[in-house]
Amino acid sequence: MSQHQPYITLDSCVLDYLNEAELSNNKYAKIWQLAYRGLEDLGLDFFYKVQSVKLPINSNLTVTLPQDYLQWTKVGVLNNAGEVVPLYYNDKLTTYADLMPDRITATQDSQNVVTGWDYNNMYWNYWNGYAYTNIYGVPSGTPRVGSFKIDTPNGVLLLNEKYQYEYVILEYMASPQQGTEYYLPVQFREALISWIRWKDIASMPSKNHINNSNVQIRRKDYYNDRRIAIARWKPIRDYDMYQVSQEMTRLTVRS
């Protein structure tokens, strides 16, 4: 991350809590692990980094997914304007033999079963709110560049047998990796510290209702601080409200 000014480190939140709770540095490893889990809990919803990579195609028309892959957001190829023209997700592609070099031949039936015209394999005109137009500026009926399917357990992306490109552009959510310096938006400082404060005692044996009540109070504080952090991180702007009102007006006119 080239610009850290609006961000703080995960380590700074750990040290803030250690000082606040008057704990020694011997607790650092435990608290850091709790903070890392808090980063995951917040990041899954709000600020996981979206990576964009250009990946080569394996000989069996598969693509090896990155080790930090969590979920894809876009899969496709580039056009001459630097835009990603997406492949469509084809849930009919089988994951059978997807780790074998002869995947294509192993998944083809010698009887060549005909399944009919695939309407999902075409670009069709669509209504953009004002008029019918063509997707990505290509004529209606132009075949797509290809299709894909993700086999997450085996860590590969499958391509259809007619795919003709030597690469694929994959945009995906990347998971955090331990042993790396992590940054989070400064608005989430108190939310993460509240998470640590809650989890630091959540698994401790409770012998009376006072301890149980304390855990519930800290849990409530975390979710409240989380809500405030989200509101501060993504405030509602006049421009956003204007866009919403314009869309509602268009929908009303069309109905």
Description of the molecule:
With 255 residues, this protein is of the alpha+beta class. It has 2 domains: 7-47 and 177-254; 50-174. 34% of the residues lie in helices and 20% in strands. The protein has helices spanning 10-20, 28-43, 103-106, 189-202, 209-233, 238-254; strands at residues 7-9, 50-56, 62-64, 69-78, 84-86, 88-89, 126-127, 132-133, 147-151, 156-159, 167-174, 183-185. A hairpin with a 4-residue loop joins strand 7 and strand 8 (132-133). The longest helix has 25 residues, at 209-233. 17% of the residues are buried. Residues 116-128 and 131-143 have low confidence and may be disordered.
The gist of it:
This protein has a four-stranded antiparallel sheet with strand order 2-11-4-5, with no helix packed on it. A four-stranded mixed sheet has the order 3-10-9-6, with no helix packed on it.
